[in-house]
Design goal:
Layout: E1 7-15, E2 18-27, E3 32-37, H1 46-57, E4 60-70, E5 77-79, H2 81-98, H3 105-110, E6 117-119, H4 126-170, H5 173-193, H6 202-215, H7 219-236, H8 243-263, H9 267-287
Parallel strand pairs: 3-4
Antiparallel strand pairs: 1-2, 2-4, 5-6
Helix pairs in contact: 1-4, 4-7, 4-9, 7-8, 8-9
Length: about 290
């Protein structure tokens, strides 16, 4: 069963007086492409995060966001009291010398001066990190479940278009005999127009005609296209990611369909080939989103 590369996963939880939200969004991409937006305190674990996502999600453009809302009473920003008092004493002395009053506005000015407010850098708590990692796995499971549901719809559409190609292939046979007779009549008619006054080696003409018609034979292309379609559907049912492999097979299907078109020389067969190409393009469009 195939999976879509599109998906969304989310996990919300509380730890150490913090509400943490993990969001994962995946879109289609040829390779794994991870964009991580995480708080600075978790930056040292970014490589580990990327390794988990690459292992669990395999391929796609992945956006990871971690949001932290602090519910605790303490803040990382602290007032540096010794520096604040030093500023206050200096300003009070200057005000006194200038004959200016010392009121609450001086405190507002001091709080904007350098080093009065200091921010203490938070250190990573390993127990907290293990909880985050556990919920990251939950979010990746959610996104994979989403991908599986999307994949079911993709698979149904891809199988339908593949079966349509196979059905159209069976419609080619009735027009092949007519096509051979048309080509043979056209060549004989053109040869007659050359007015060679009977100077034609009939045996040689028949040999050349047989060789030409043999080059126009479609049996090999029909057999190969049928086999590609069967292999394509078999690959769809494989448990491991098969998007790239399916793309390669679809390219081979396209080559056989194009060859059938180049050998057609018959309007009904050409119409069938055009319909095959239409279904193949729909398959290729869906494969862009297959994991």
């Amino acid at each position: 069963m195939i999976k879509s590369m599109t998906g969304f996963g989310k996990a919300e939880f509380e730890v150490n007086n913090k509400k943490i939200t993990i969001e994962l969004k995946a879109l289609n991409s040829k390779q794994i492409d991870i964009n991580a937006r995480i708080p600075s305190v978790y930056r040292e674990k970014e490589i580990e995060l990327r390794k988990v996502l690459a292992e669990k999600l395999v391929r796609g453009k992945i956006d990871l966001s971690i949001y932290v809302e602090n519910h605790g009473e303490e803040s990382n920003s602290k007032i540096n009291e010794p520096i604040l008092k030093s500023y206050f004493d200096h300003l009070k002395e200057i005000n006194a010398g200038l004959g200016l009053p010392t009121d609450q506005t001086i405190m507002q000015a001091i709080l904007r001066l350098p080093d009065v407010v200091k921010t203490e850098h938070e250190t990573l708590d390993e127990e907290e990190w293990q909880v985050i990692l556990e919920h990251l796995h939950k979010a990746t499971k959610d996104i994979n479940d989403f991908r599986t549901r999307e994949g079911e719809a993709l698979e149904a559409d891809i199988v339908s278009n593949t079966e349509n190609i196979r059905n159209l292939l069976t419609q080619v046979a009735p027009f092949e005999a007519q096509r051979i007779n048309t080509i043979k009549s056209r060549l004989t008619e053109n040869l007659g127009k050359l007015n060679l006054n009977g100077n034609v080696d009939e045996n040689r003409f028949e040999q050349e005609l047989a060789y030409y018609l043999d080059k126009m034979d479609m049996n090999e292309e029909k057999v190969r296209l049928e086999n590609h379609c069967i292999y394509f559907i078999e690959t769809l049912s494989q448990p491991e990611p098969s998007g790239k492999k399916l793309s390669f097979i679809s390219q081979e299907m396209g080559r056989e369909i194009n060859t059938l078109g180049s050998k057609a020389y018959e309007s009904n067969i050409q119409r069938i080939v055009v319909q095959m190409k239409d279904h193949l393009e729909r398959i290729k469009e869906q494969l862009l989103n297959v994991l």
